[in-house]
Amino acid sequence: MERSEQELVRRENLRRIREMGIEPFPAATFPVTHLATDILEQAEFDDENKATNFGEVTLAGRVMAVRVMGKAAFAGLQDSSGRIQIYVSRDDIAPGEDKALYNDLFKKYLDLGDFIGIKGFVFRTRTGEVSVHVQEFTFLGKALRPLPVVKTDEDGNTYDAFSDPEARYRMRYVDLTVNPQYKEIFRKRSRLITAMRSFLDDLGLMEVETPILQPIHGGAAARPFATHHNTLDVPMYLRIANELYLKRLIVAGFDGVYEFAKMFRNEGMDRTHNPEFTAVEFYVAYKDYNWMMDTCEALLEHAVKSVGENGSTRVTVGDNEIDFKGPYRRLTMADAIMEYTGEDINGADEAELRAICQRLHIHVDKTMGRGKLIDEIFGEKVEGHLIQPTFITDYPVEMSPLTKKHRSKEGLVERFELMVNGKEIANAYSELNDPIDQRERFEEQLKLADRGDDESMPMDEDFLRALEYGMPPTAGIGIGIDRLVMLLTGQKSIQEVLFFPQMKPEA
């Protein structure tokens, strides 16, 4: 591979460092005592500008800027928390006659992006910048490729930014190094998941794990990724959902289980869809979808507070301020369609629904059954209007093959979806626990598959066998983590909230 001039210079510097008897990729532990941000935020100084609340400090990180002034230099050291200025004096880090540690290693062979460790004391410069006066210097790792140099002037203007989305997503390791402000997105993601996990633990649920490789791709309407198990000589699928396995555990006698799980759906990629995504699903025995709506409100209010400013439940997304404090509006699917289209779908058969779609200029095809037609109407004409958290309830039975029939409304099921900012965030049911009804629903799905619907659910005989052993009344829900993080961090693209989104092969 042809290397750039800078890459060749760095390899020459690597060779020179080794000639000095210094290992450029040392294996020993380096004992870090402080982070840059801790010092910047907490330092207090006496009249001589020395920190009074910090003694000796040890930091490690990348060198992101160097300004040499003869026998001394200032540099920018960036660790996981942020960047701090360091002051390096030749006679401090090389106190004897041999000044090679400063004159050669620091001044000549140290490149931007290299990892170093320092030990010293905290002081404040004449210009008021909190800094670390280096007394010991250790080389910790050589960067053989140059980082993009992003410059910011005194007025806050940025030059040579590493901002191309494809480059950023493909080389996230570079992106988060030179654009450290994006790290906060992933810190919030982590805090959100921690808060949700804590809430579910306090609810008395048990965290479990279920198979990612499955012999039948059940639990949702989606196309799977297919593979082959060589030893068993059978086709296998990456899971599109973990629902059916979690319900098997309810059959097994657990009162409540949850899983933060990776799902895989062989579908399109856009600003709100990635083929690999994260969801949390939980199932609780002896509950229904009404209980789950209350619980969903409480869970999200708790979780959003964990990442909001000063514990706020309000987030700003574009021009909209969204409040996750309950209670949320509850609206049946038929009422929502009536409200935003003026069309009444109650009791409408497939032909009547096709006529409604034609009036509303919604494109449909012959593979779509009654449920898919209603879903198209809702998605095209209603979804985008639902900005504040809204529970859409009571779906047609054709749209929900795993859901218990409504206790009082013929042709409907006890299901809700939580819509926020025009997108689905959560999907929940009173779970279908009648194995005879469940078999009939699967058979209806097989008929849709015969019509060409490649997202219909297959028959799962083992799941039906589990239901025949008896499952108590159960409420279940799935919440999409990626879309929720998008909302809470104000991101318009799902790629911004994934460390490593799916990308086309690199040319």
UniProtKB/TrEMBL annotation:
Any one GO molecular-function label of the UniProt entry? ATP binding
Residues where Mg(2+) 2 binds: 424
Q: What class of enzyme is it?
A: ligase
One cellular component (GO) term of this entry: cytosol
Report domain Aminoacyl-transfer RNA synthetases class-II family profile positions.
186-501
What are the required cofactors? Mg(2+)
In which residues is Mg(2+) 1 bound? 417, 424
Gene Ontology annotations of biological process type = lysyl-tRNA aminoacylation
InterPro entries the UniProt entry points to: Aa-tRNA-synt_II, aa-tRNA-synth_II, aa-tRNA-synth_II/BPL/LPL, Lys-tRNA-ligase_II, Lys-tRNA-ligase_II_N, Lys-tRNA-synth_II_C, NA-bd_OB-fold, NA-bd_OB_tRNA
Protein location: Cytoplasm
Q: Give the reactions, separated by semicolons, that this protein catalyses.
A: tRNA(Lys) + L-lysine + ATP = L-lysyl-tRNA(Lys) + AMP + diphosphate
Database matches in Pfam families: tRNA-synt_2, tRNA_anti-codon
How and how many cofactors are bound, per the record note?
A: Binds 3 Mg(2+) ions per subunit.
Out of the domains of life, which is the source?
Bacteria
Which PROSITE patterns would you find in this protein's record?
AA_TRNA_LIGASE_II
Q: Does the keyword Lipid biosynthesis apply?
A: no
Enzyme Commission number(s): 6.1.1.6
PANTHER family named among the record's database cross-references: LYSINE--TRNA LIGASE, CHLOROPLASTIC_MITOCHONDRIAL (PTHR42918:SF15), LYSYL-TRNA SYNTHETASE (PTHR42918)
- Known partners and oligomeric status: Homodimer.
Q: Which family does it belong to?
A: Belongs to the class-II aminoacyl-tRNA synthetase family.
Q: What is this protein called?
A: Lysine--tRNA ligase
Q: Which gene encodes it?
A: lysS
